[in-house]
Amino acid sequence: MRETLVLNASFEPLSTVTLRRAVVLVLQEKAVVEHAHPRLRVRAATVDLPLPRVIRLSRYVRVPFRRQAPWSRRGVLVRDRHRCAYCGRRATTVDHVVPRSHGGGDTWLNTVASCAEDNHRKADRTPEQAGMRLLRTPYEPSPSDALVLALGGVGRESLPDWLAVPA
Q1: pLDDT at 158 over 60
Q2: Is 145 in a helix, a strand, or coil?
Q3: Which pLDDT value is given to residue 154?
Q4: Cβ pair 31, 56 in contact under 8 A
Q5: Cα gap 85→82, rounded to integer Å
Q6: Is residue 164 over pLDDT 70?
Q7: What CA dihedral angle connects 13, 17, 21 and 25, to 10 degrees?
Q8: Nearest to 78 by CA among 91, 87, 68, 62
């Protein structure tokens, strides 16, 4: 599970890595801990290190510009915080606002998280045709927002305010 956010030396989000990889980067002095878990620590015979939640690389890494975050089903569920866009209950599927059979594609603005019941009830229709209302409008997260959202529910509350992602 990827649970540590990696920032470039310029503080821009780059990726998420496993806790083990984050500790290795810090021990090799390739990164510094910017934000740690308040109570947990990694301890060994010669090491006592706070459990990293956010690390920053010591040297700047040039990254090709990415205009948009890549679309994925998991990304849509994470973006919508696993809440159904029609009823607000726990979402397990992704629904196309404009169905694929009507020309709708796999894009951030055409997909929302949905519970199985509402996805089945909407079927091969638009929300207007099905008489259903979207509780929130789908949006396209920036690549950096997508990385912070990918940390999941457990990690976001413990992140510093300067890394907050709009709800």
Answers
A1: no
A2: helix
A3: 44
A4: yes
A5: 9
A6: no
A7: 0
A8: 91
CA diameter of the chain: 65
> How many Cα atoms are found within 13 Å in the side-chain-facing hemisphere of 101?
5
Query: Contact, 86 vs 114, CB < 8 A?
Result: yes
Helix (H, G, I), strand (E, B) or coil at 2: strand
For 31, counting Cβ atoms within 10 Å of its Cβ (0-12 exposed, 13-18 middle, 19+ buried), the class is buried
Burial of 59 (0-12, 13-18, 19+ CB in 10 A): exposed
Residue 139: both structure tokens together? 């949006």
Report how far residue 133's alpha carbon sits from residue 88's, in angstroms, rounded to the nearest whole number.
11
Cβ contacts of residue 159 below 8 Å, gap of 6+? Answer: 5, 35, 53, 54, 148, 151
Contact (CB, 8 A) for 53 and 36: yes
Q: What 3-state class would DSSP assign to 118?
A: helix
DSSP 83: B
Q: Which two tokens stand for residue 97?
A: 């606002």
CA distances from 19 to 5, 49, 99, 166 (A): 9, 12, 39, 25
pTM for this entry? 0.61
The secondary structure of residue 135, as a DSSP letter, is S
Residue that has been written with the tokens 């948009």 in this structure: 68
